[in-house]
Design goal:
There is one protein chain. The chain is an all-alpha fold. The protein has one domain (13-117): Up-down Bundle (Four Helix Bundle (Hemerythrin (Met), subunit A)). The chain contains four helices and no strands. It has helices at 12-42, 46-69, 73-92, 98-118. Helix 1 runs antiparallel to helix 4. The longest helix has 31 residues, at 12-42. The N and C termini lie far apart (37 Å).
Length: 127
């Protein structure tokens, strides 16, 4: 995640607002990457699971740290939970079960909902 460097003339509130905008833009992409990786895991052999899960773990780790930087404790906690499960699955060296993937998918969907709330309500265009 790319975070712009602080400017000496920025006050803390303005800097935090810039960080949050950057976080919002990139967090959504990280969540999409996590979901795409889980989808890929479901269609691969047990041997390929480890590499894909390690990639997902790194993505979750980045998202956890970024959420902490912008002081989003609930989101950081949810990310840390996903990160922990992914680390355990990666280190186990075994394939994943359908139930484990479904649980991770549900946890990541919850993260996605939290990230969407940050972006505010979407405008509706009823034509």
């Amino acid at each position: 995640m790319t975070i712009p460097p602080p400017c000496a003339s920025d006050d803390d509130a303005a800097f935090h607002a810039r960080l949050l905008i950057t976080f919002q833009a990139e967090a959504s992409q990280h969540v999409k990457e996590l979901l795409a990786t889980l989808t890929a895991v479901a269609g691969t052999s047990a041997e390929e699971h480890s590499a894909l899960l390690a990639t997902a773990h790194r993505t979750a780790h980045s998202l956890t740290g970024a959420a902490r930087c912008v002081e989003l404790a609930d989101l950081a906690q949810g990310c840390a939970k996903v990160e922990l499960v992914l680390r355990q699955l990666t280190q186990s060296g075994h394939g994943t079960t359908s139930a484990q993937l479904q649980r991770l998918s549900a946890d990541i969907d919850a993260l996605s909902a939290m990230v969407q709330v940050l972006s505010g309500p979407k405008e509706r265009h009823d034509d």
